[in-house]
Amino acid sequence: MAELKPPDTRRCRYFFLYDGSKVRGEGDPTRDGICYFYPEETPVDKQDLLCGQLAGVGRCVSELSSSAVRILRLRRCKFAIRMKDDFFWALGCSMEVPTVSVCELLDHLINLFCFYNGSVRQSYQLNSKETLAAEWARYLSHVLSGPSELHYILQSVRTLDLTNVDPLLLLKAALILQACQRCPLVLAGCVLFRGRVVSTQMPPQLTIKVMVHESETYTKTQRSSGTSKPPSDGEPVSSTAVFLTPSELQYLQSAPVDKISSSHSAPEKEAPPKKTRLSRTLSDTPSSESTPSRPASCQSPQKPSFSSRTSGSEDSVFSLAPSQGSSADSPNPSPLSPIRHFSNGENADQAEERTLDESHYHSLHSDGGGVSQMPSEGDGSAFEGSLHLNSGATSRTTDCGNVASRDEKTAAGEGGVCCRKAKGHKAETRQPPSGSCSFNSLEESPLVPMALYVHRVNSLVLALLVEPRFMGDSASMEEVNHSSLASLNGLEAHLRAISPVAPGAAGPYLFAHYDSVQSTLTTNVSGRPGGVPEHPFVRATSLLHSHFFDTETLQEAIIRSAGTAVYGTRSVAQETYFQQHWGTMRNSGIPNQQDSAFSLPSKARHRLLKHGVNLL
Amino acid sequence: MKCLLIASESAEVLFHWSDREYRQNIQEKYGVSQEEGEGLPAFEDILSTLFAPIIISCSTLEDSYTSFTTENNHIYVLHQFDECLYIAVNGDGEEKEDDLRRKLYVVKKMVEVMFGMVTLSGNLLRKELRPQDTEQRARLWKYLQSLVETYSLLRENDQSFLVEAVERLIHPQLCELCIEFLERRLVQQLNSSVERAGEEVLHAFVLVHTKLLAFYSSRNASILTPSDLLALIVMAQNMYPSNVDLDDMSPEVSNSCLTDFVFGLLEKAGRGETPVFEFVDPEIQMAEDSLHTLEINPPDPTSPRRVFLAISHKDEMCPMMPHSMYCLSLWPGITLVLLTKISSSALAISVYKYLEDFDKLEKRLHEGHGGPASARSPLNMQDIRSKMDKFIKSLEPHDLQYAQLQNVWAEFKSRAFSRAGSGFNKDLIPWCKNMKTQLCGIYRQCFLTDSLSADVTHRLSAGLQERAQAMVREKLVDWKDFLLVKSKRNITMDFPGLVHFICVDRATGQMIAPSLNITERTTSELGKGPVANYIKNKVWALVRTTRRYLQKGYSTVTLRDGDFYFCYFLWFENETGYKLQPVDIPVLADDSPPIGMLAYDYYNRLLKYYSKNHKGENVKCYELLTVHLGVIPTEIILQHCRQLASKLWEPSRNPLL
Predict the structure, then answer these.
(1) Which ipTM did the prediction report?
(2) Where does the FUZ/MON1/HPS1 first Longin domain lie (chain B) (predicted)?
């Protein structure tokens, strides 16, 4: 979208990755160790100097303190540092960006790289510096392309303006995701529209990672076509290899739907397989991928091309689970396009149910004959997942309600569980000293290869994190296609119909509301170039945010200079900043109850209600 | 886990201080890389080896380092003052980055008070800070180390060192009585005595712990800046400490506890012995250390300390004017301090003027302005030349330093003024530098030589000092106990819900606040023990926070934090108490000098900045910090603040005297 801007060079000065293992001997030139340096046009001598000095001093300090350097400040630039094995990352930003934000940006950057490329060391063993430099550049530009200064300070997932969207559509998106999740190979997913989140089942950190891929393909299609309509004859379905950290995987595997009490789901999960077995005897055979009852129409015509593509890339670069073998059993590609799916008159729900039953059945019964097909570890999880997902589906009405309510930011019931989990995750990532969770892509625990399945319908995108063998498992793919396609089309049409809200005039106040659980930011700060009146607000927000971060017990603050007064308040789940434009500030600096600055809290409570921010 | 280091650009350690944990930690680090059986080298050499990569990297980068933070929250703060690199390290979380930066600036201030203009020459300062003679070095470092410890203790426990403003005892009648006594009796008698040996008492003040009871300056004395006064209180406290936590010990005992233990080790290190404290019973170690301390002659208690203080007197301005400081203990906790002008001090002003001239010339030459004639505000070099000639003639021509200055000046003249010379161009820059070094050398010769402490003839005689001590003792003997109690309970509060406040008059550098006593035995407004300690920590954190906001231009801050509500206000008034309009306060960089008055007078600069638009008005600047219970409604809190702001300073516009 037009919101994506090139990296803001004012804020980010330098980013580099230096590999100390390449510079061991006295004679080794420093530049041999430089894996990537931004800005790329920096003279090599300067690159050498910065990398050599910073890495050298970093090592010296780390030895003195028996702990890696985290922050390194120069007089005019502050660096977040990461040291791991022989790698040395440094992200240098201007002094105005809060230190905590610079650290988060760097971690995010490294995590992004690991998400799409796997272990850094291995990547550099397998690929050339140049190839990976392009990757770094790509992630850097994404990380630095926030629409406004506030996005540097408060790292956030960009969502649809929820005040402008019919909640039913959000419910619908959540339903689509749930339907997809019934396939045991699907971990979690999210629905994006025009680069913004409509609904997600993933924790915010992971959603942001997934969105990098999406927004990139989105901007690419935007550029190539020049219209908002991506080429309809392009590839609506694609996939890419990704890597999850064990903690991310664990989080996804213990998603809220798992927690539906098994008591009432137990009898229900018994029934459908029986019915299936009764109705379709053929499905008893172990090689059940080519079930005759499956409508041929659900096969996507693009299937062979992309499956060969992914399997090819995966094979060459990464050693994946042995599930690749199953792609050999892929059923015949269908000549019909996914859209035609509806022409067979089958109602989407029926289709869903049927595929669900089948998949459930498969996972229950395939292990006998299909040991070679299923990795032993994945087998168990898939089996379990299937059971739970099935139960989740049966109690769908309540479940959907919960998902929807989560989307509307009310933390109750199931959503509450999710919120707390997300918070826990976040709290961990925001502790620089321990820093383990946010950064475990660099920890010893190995990354788990997964795949990111992306289905695009015009500006709407369904992105699913799936087991790698999903891409070779045509049955599962069909199933997902079946369960989502009709609904995606419908959702896309509805969302497209919503007229974008004109960016309202700034009004007599500025505010920023950050939901730290869902990592969403609501603000009327435009970030337009030349937003001079906004600068004091952003500056104050930056200071207050750092202060909130440093002081756990701090609840609210008012800070005032001669011309500006900004109010900040935070709870466990949110941070809100508010500034009122006064004609003339009643203020002499001395304590005075009449002072307009002290009425900011009540003004904020009153004004922000209409933005859906409740400060009561 | 604390350490402070001054290093030259070549990584030579010019001074170091560290606590036991840090020393242990460093020695373990170093021990790892050492062969078994080889004794560890001197601690300063270990430091030098381990820190060398950092120090050398500092001079390689054009944009210098200001701090490092590690994942286990060790903080390193670095600052380059001229040719010396100062590094402070904390590994126990007790100090934050700004505390460490402040400490560096305070140490620099102390070095300036001790060495005056010698600090302007990197070369000479290096020699001064690290004397060749190891015993002399040990003595100097020990003294400077004890100053660092005393300052750290005060900053952690004393509110006046927290906000860096002098606290007065609030008892107007007694104060007035005392000032009158200092003026009419004490100073007059001292200055009319023949035993003063050419010295003239300029300032006299009485301290009760760190609080000021009375301060008198003679008529021809320049105003003592808050910065210098605070530095002198640190020195007086160092000599006669009154540690709140060691109330039961006599000050002498606590003093030796504090310092001797630490410095015994240092002396060993200085002599190349292996400090073995970790293997030795601490008590035995203490005794041993005390012995070592005795080996170095303790300074004669009647010998003054040379201190260099700023004066501005009519058109004379000199930031480092030599004074003698006499610190006389009246009773434990109560001290009389006398500051005298020494007979030859006029020389310091001349040296300072010439230093400035050569400095200007050097800058000019650097900018490539060529001859002085082309400059915007021309330096009259001919005038300087004749004055300099006269100045050199006036010096006593009998030592090496004098001969050197004469030689360099002759060389400078031949290069600058003669036809054969190169004239005023960049080639003259080294000679400018050389002249500055020589001038600093002369200054050092006159005011800093070691013979000073042995020179009994140029100081108030021991008898005179004793008489002064006796006079003040006699005057205050009836008040003694009252004063000691009063210093712990200076003022009381009568606002329900108000937990604590600090009010500071920045124009005069004075503060008032209820006491915060945190020991079990003493009770303050807040009660005693853990609660008071908790509040104390909150207040300390609040001051740090508000400084951070002030640094970024915010002069009002209110915070709801846990069960408390904090307020901070900074405002300006004119002399009649009229509240002046606020202005946008300059936004400073993160590594700018600390906000305070001791090491760097931020408020003085702020007042000058504000006064630019209020010409002719005597602008005052006030700060108020309050801590309320969080349940009190904000309106009431603000009302309290307003009442406090007016009540504390309004009645007589001078309630503290």
Answers:
(1) 0.85
(2) 2-152
